[in-house]
Structure formats: structure tokens, C-alpha cells
Amino acid sequence: MFAETLNLTQSKDSATLIKRMYIESYGCQMNFSDSEIVTSILEKEGYTNTNEIEHADLVLINTCSIREKAEQTTRKRLEYFNSIKNKKNKNMIVGVLGCMAERLKKRFLDEEKLVDLVVGPDSYRDLPLLLQQVNDGKKAINVFLSLEETYADIKPTRLMKNGVTAFVSITRGCDNMCSFCVVPFTRGRERSRNPKSIINECKDLLDNGYKEVTLLGQNVDSYLWYGGGAKKDFNKASKDQKESSINFAQLLEMIAKIDIKLRIRFSTSNPQDMSIEVIKIISKYKNICNYIHLPVQSGSSNILKLMNRGYSREDYINLIDQIKKEIPDCAISMDMITGFCSETEEDHQETLTLMDYVKYDYGYMFKYSERPNTTAEKKLTDNIPENIKQRRLTEIINKQSQHSLENMQKKVGKIYEVLIERTSKKSKEYFFGRTTHNSSVVFEKGDAKIGDYVMVKVENCTSATLFGKIISYEHTTS
Ligand code: SAH
Ligand code: F3S
User: Which residues form the pocket of ligand 2, taking CB atoms under 6 Å from any ligand atom?
Assistant: First the structure.
């Protein structure tokens, strides 16, 4: 109530209320990055961010469809938003953004009656117009998928405010069509963002004190800028466009050269598209972190084939060997799915032995969740009973915890450069930062400050965190 009076901006003809928006994001890093683009678009319309749903004029939820559970979480949140709307804030507009909006489209408005606004991942520029429609008493929807939209010119409003690390999106959509995955349907065809706009965003971040960027895409290694739209149309590009095209390795090098103090991460690499050129660039530049997230999904070639991943167990092992040869000190993490259609006990054992071979530093592991309209849903049978999926999941989680612990223990006694991100959540006397390997490190603050690079000697660890002490305040350049 008070904020309304305070937020009144006066102009001679009209007194315009600054409107308040609340945004909640679920799912992949790309969704969090998209919410920053949405916020930027809406700020231009006079919206400011609030953390209080009760006082928001607009409540947005940026959704994920990757597993059924993610969708259930959204529905629960929407019911909660609606209860607030009905009890306390009748004029509040509730909108669904992202993958679930794209997947369910008009059904959100017609059947569920939980929302006023449905906007797919490529339609955020249309938000001002759609909001106008809602204000005019209509329900509004835009779920058009684009072959060109990359939001290249929009400067994201940074919502994750540590002021040190930021996401920079470089591609949108995915053409890989893994048989289990809903993303190609919810995020559309793959397209790459103009490298100039990426470099400018990185430089701007650096000028504003940021020290680390994470380049985002469903499949960053397949980045290809040729001045055109969707990657699938590259063949139709002119000779000039083809010759001056820029791939992921070249983009990485351009960003690495901006400044040695700007650290670079990227996610996600699909094993099918990662090239030796990229691996060599990582090894060449100290400010490109020695860490690759390389989702494998299964250790069995039979299952990988059914998943349409485009590589076999042997191809994946070859890639790992190449990475370890070129970058001996490289951390590797994975995503893994258990209980995919027809997965046998032997297939599962192959997953476990692959894990023993790679000894991943981290892992994100999931039970297979059948998604509507995917090839797996149409052509295969989700025939592994829930208890077996769960038992296999527990086995791989236990193995991964063991590997994570062993990898962390090897770091005890060693010295690592750490970029300080924030005060530790457990104690305000301590800082939290990360090493090149993406290991979390907690240590006493000393004379350092957030955003500094410091050298930390590791003294102790758990499977998730290293503990140590600062031994020097220098940033190394070699
Ligand atoms: N682009 C990434 C994956 C994006 S989705 C890649 O290259 O693999 C993130 C992770 O969710 C996937 O790696 C996969 O492990 C998991 N996932 C996707 N669809 C799933 C499904 N239907 N059931 C269970 N897990 C799934
Ligand atoms: Fe999904 Fe495979 Fe693309 S997991 S996001 S279709 S690389």
C-alpha cells in the first residue's frame, strides 16, 4: 500500500504507477538466464522487481518440462499464486513462461484456468503487448517458436546478484532430438547468437566488476554463427557467410582474449558435438576453466542408440581419453538417466563400469520420466518398474558420491586459485568461492574481498566442499 504511493511517478498528463513484478524460475540455467531477459523487457514497461508475491501486480513463473516432477512443482506453485490472488490481491496477473507454456499452450488457459498469460521461450518481446491484452480483460498467449530469436540486443537485468558470476546465453533451442527429451519441442530449432553481441555482453560484465561468465546453450559445442538464423539452414548460406562463419572453438578463443581476469565456463556440451579444436582451446587459455560438463546418459551402447544420442560407449570413452590427454587436470561431470526403456541389468552394469572408468567429479542423476510426444513416448515402452529405476538410481548415486569424495580428497594439501563469489552461508567469517574445476571452497576471509582471486591451500574436504586457507592474494596469469 505504501509502496504504491512511493512508486508514483509524476508526469503532467498522467500519473503512472510503477508496477511490481515477481518472477520465479525453475529448471536449467537457461531458464534463469531467460528470466533476466524477461525482467529487462518488463523494466522498460515500468515494472520493478519485488520479492513479495502479495504485493505484486504481475507474478511470472518460468517453467521446466524436462521431467514430470518439474511440471507438478509448477502446478503446485500456480495453485498457491491463485490462492493469494483470490484472497488478497484480486488484480494480480499470473503468467506462465518457458517450456511448460510452450508444451501446454492454450490448454493452460482453457482447461486449467490458473493463469492469465502464457508465453513461450521465443515470445518474450511480445510481453508488453500481451500484458496490454490482459489489462483489456482478455487472456493472452504467444507460443510461436522462432528460427531467429536470440534476444541478442537485450541487456539482461542480473537477478543473481553476487556481482561476480553471470550467465551469457550463446545458443537457443536444440536440434539433437534425443528420444527421451522434450526440449526440441519446447525450445524449438537451434540458432546461434551474433558473436559481437556476446563479446560486448562479456566486456560490459567485466567493466561492471564481473569476473566469470558461463556461456549457455542446450548444446554449446554446436554453436555456429554464419549471419543467418537456424543452424539447420546453414547449407543454404552464401559462400561468404560460410567462409566467415564462427564455430564454438573460435568463439571461446575470442572471449578468452578479452581479459585474463575474466574466467569462462560453458554448459552444456553434447559428446556428439564436442571437437578436438574446443578441447585444445580450453587447454591453451588459462582463463577457460578446466571443467567440462559432458552428459553421457548411459554407459551402454544399446541404450545410447535407443536414446538417439549419436555416440556409442566407445566414442564417449575416446572423447574422455582425448580430454585427459590434452587437459590432464580437467574436471568432468555428467548427467545420467536410469531405467530408460528396456534397460537391462547388463546395461546398468555398463553404466557403473563407465563411471568407474571416468571417475566423474560431479554427477546429476535422474530416473527416466516419459515425456509426451517424444520419440521414446511414441515408439518405445517405459517398461522398467519404478522400484528398479529407483534401485539403479541409488546405486549410481552411491558410486558417484564415492568418486566425488575420492576426487576431492586428492585435492587436500594442494594450492588452487579461487574466485571469491560471496560470504559462506554457514559463517560470515568465511568466504565461498570456486576453483577452475568448479569445486566449492570455503575459507577464512582474511584481507580478501568478493570478486578477488586468491590462492588457497586445501586442508580438508567433504565430497562437496573443500576447506582451506588463503596463502596469497595474487592473481596468476600463467
Ligand atoms: N542439452 C543437454 C541436456 C539438457 S536436459 C545434453 O546435452 O544432454 C538436462 C538433463 O535432464 C539431461 O542431460 C538428462 O540427463 C535429463 N533428462 C532429460 N530428459 C529426461 C527425461 N525424459 N527423463 C529423465 N531425465 C531427463
Ligand atoms: Fe535434450 Fe538431447 Fe538437446 S538431451 S536438450 S535433445 S542434446
Answer: 174, 176-178, 181, 183-184, 218-219, 270
